Every structure is written in C-alpha cells, then in structure tokens.
Amino acid sequence: MNQSVNFLGRTLSGPIITAPCPAAWSANDLIELMQSGAGAVTTKSVTKDHRKGNAEPREYYWNESSINAVGLANDGIAAHVEYIKTAVAAVPNVPVIISIAGFGTEEYVDCVVAASQSPEIFAIELNLSCPNTEHNIIADDPKLVGAVLSAVCKHNQKPLGIKVNPTNSQQLADAIVAVADSHGVDFITCTNTVGGAYLAQADGAPVLAANGGFGGLAGASISAISIGTLVRYKSAIERQKSDIEIISVGGVTTGAEAQKRLHLGASVVGIATPIMIHGAVVVGQINAEMNVKG
C-alpha cells in the first residue's frame, strides 16, 4: 500500500521522516537516510558557526532508548547547506528539512537567511529547546519564542516550524501555539528530549562525561511523555483554530507506535534513536510494519 501523506503542501511517499540526530550530519549521511524510504529527512541541528560540542562520551544507547548531551556539535550553517545541496543532487525526490539552533536572536536570523537562500532546502525547523548546552531554553518562555519568530519571519522564505520541549502544562502549550500561529508558523515538532536525565554506572559514576553526567533522555523511555505533549499541542491548535501541523517525535520504535501518533493528530512521525541504534534500515522496517511502500 502506498500511504503517501501531504505535509506542508507537499506529497511525501510516507508518514515516517527522520528527526535530527548525529546520523544526519554529512552529505553521505543525508543520502543514506534519503534512500531509506523516509518521506523526508531532517538534518542534525546546526548553528551559525562550527561547534565542537560536549566532551566524549556524550551518547549512550540501551533498550531502544538513549541519553545524550551532544551539545549541538556541527560544522556550521554554510557547511551544512553544502551537504544538503550535494544530497539533494543525488536524491532529488526526498525533501530535506534543516534544523537550526542558536544562542541569540541574531544567530537564528543569520542561519534562516542562509537556509532561505538555498532552493534545495524544503523547510526550516527552529530548535528552540535543546537541553544540553549552557544556555537557557527559549521554548520554555512564550515571550522569547515570539521574539525569535518576530526577527526570523522578516527573512524567512520557507515553511517554518519550531521544536518544543515536553510539557505537562496545557497553559504553556496554548501560549506557544498562540505565539506560533500569530507569526505564521507552519508546524510544531513535539518533542525534544527530556532534559535533566542522569544515567549512572554500577558504582554511581555518570555514563556521560558532559554536563556533569546530565543529558537528554530519548527513545522508547519517553514514549508516554511524547504522546502527552502531542495531545496537549494538538488540543491547543484546535482551540486556536489554527492549521499548524505537527511532527511527533520521541519514542517511536514500531509501526504501531507511529500509527498511534497519526491517529492522535500528527501529520508525520519522526524517528531518531532507532536510527542511531539500528541504522537507516529501520525506516524501511517501520514502513513495512505500516504497510507503507516507501
């Protein structure tokens, strides 16, 4: 069965897309993901300039779950735009979403300007919610979200989305959606990792070297939290009478889990931790479970 979906006005071959992760870094990484059967691929989060990120070890995987404190390591916006150009030239029929992070409004603007000038980029996702750096999390404050959007929307020429944190507050979801809708945001990605997680070895030593051992929890361990965030944001969008679409990310490891997110109102479903554990082949496996011909 060909379960194509419409997302942001474009027909995708299926509802499974890839979410930002270290396996979406280079041009070759992107090409591999674009050939996996994914309906679209998203780059790892990139900043204006090269970032080394946090100290190793900064990632750990177990039981379809993960904890990481990569710290937004990347090669800078100019390099990643070139990676995307190379990948799209090789696989032109799979749209690429670029994930952009920043440590101030000006940095977001500079990155959006660079991305908007690249015809190979389909859409822009603003990562406003990375929990693994020394900076405050923008997505926790609707006023800060509004300030970033007010600045970038003057320069943006692409479908635009924001990536938010897990939330147990309907009030926060309502406020974020109201701000996003007023600025013409096209999609919201629910959700980033669950920050503040700490995985210890048998002797109590942290598994991660970065952030004093603290990192973002992802994968199967956050499925219920991710679904809760999806439900809250979908409810907020409906009350706002908005046409903002949702990418549901976090804890999707099977076709049944992905289908559940679609039933709950997601337009597409993103996966990251399964790719880091099993490789790009997992996209095709989940598609097969959903009877999707990717």
Quickly describe the structure.
34% of the residues lie in helices and 20% in strands. Strands 3-14-13-10-9-8-7-4 form an eight-stranded parallel β-sheet.
What does this protein look like?
- By secondary structure, the chain is of the alpha/beta class.
- The protein has one domain (5-289): Alpha-Beta Barrel (TIM Barrel), CATH 3.20.20.70.
- It has helices spanning 27-34, 77-90, 105-116, 142-152, 170-182, 223-240, 255-263, 273-278, 281-289; strands at residues 5-7, 10-12, 16-18, 41-42, 59-62, 65-68, 96-100, 123-127, 160-164, 187-190, 194-198, 214-219, 245-249, 268-271.
- The strands form three sheets. It has an eight-stranded parallel β-sheet. The chain has a four-stranded antiparallel β-sheet with strand order 5-6-12-11.
- Helix 1 packs across helix 2, helix 4 runs parallel beside helix 5 (170-182) and helix 5 packs across helix 6 (223-240).
- The relative contact order is 0.18.
Keywords summarizing the entry:
alpha/beta; TIM Barrel; eight-stranded parallel beta sheet; about 290 residues; four-stranded antiparallel beta sheet
